[in-house]
Amino acid sequence: MKLYGIPNCNTVKKARLWLEGHGLAYEFHNFKKQGVPETIFKSLMQAHGWEPLVNRNGTTWRKLPDERKAQVKDAASALAAMQENTSVIKRPILESDGRYLFGFRESEYEELVSK
């Protein structure tokens, strides 16, 4: 199991606490230190589209100039924006056995790990 995110993000903290509280081992990929794994993100965008990966509700997105936001209109431009500023990535992203969850909802985590 692998969790992608930013350590100081409150939602990532909740996900990590939930995993640890359920005794589940995971590897943590820190976007700030390790960057955006382009191959994985391209696969995710192909399977799920690019929209679920962009956190348009976050402070970082809201602070971007309107001109920059308007440039994010497809997978390539979304990936470029995420590589420029990892805080615009929806987080956390949990990977387990080739399945992915975006964000943290306890019911979805329970369902994923019970399979």
Describe the model:
With 115 residues, the chain is α+β, with helices and mostly antiparallel strands. It has one domain (2-114): Glutaredoxin. 50% of the residues lie in helices and 14% in strands. A four-stranded mixed sheet has the order 2-1-3-4. The two termini are 13 Å apart. The mean pLDDT is 93.
- The total number of structural domains is 1
The portion of residues assigned to helices is: 40-55%
What's the CATH class, please?
Alpha Beta
Gyration radius, rounded? 14 Å
Considering the protein shown, what is the CATH homologous superfamily? Glutaredoxin
CATH topology assignment: Glutaredoxin
- Shape label: globular
Class by alpha and beta content = alpha+beta
In round numbers, the mean pLDDT is 93
What is the helix/strand order? Answer: EHEHHHHHEEH
What is the overall number of helices?
A: 7
Q: Tell me about the biggest sheet?
A: 4 strands, mixed
Please render the helix and strand layout as text:
Layout (H helix, E strand, L loop, with lengths): L1 E4 L4 H12 L5 E4 H4 L3 H11 L10 H5 L2 H6 L3 H10 L8 E4 L2 E4 L3 H9 L1
Parallel strand pairs: 1-2
Antiparallel strand pairs: 1-3, 3-4
Keywords for this structure?
115 residues, 7 helices, 50% helix, alpha+beta, globular
Q: Nutshell version of this structure?
A:
With 115 residues, the protein is α+β, with helices and mostly antiparallel strands. Helix content is 50%, strand content 14%. It has 7 helices and 4 strands; from the N terminus they run E-H-E-H-H-H-H-H-E-E-H.
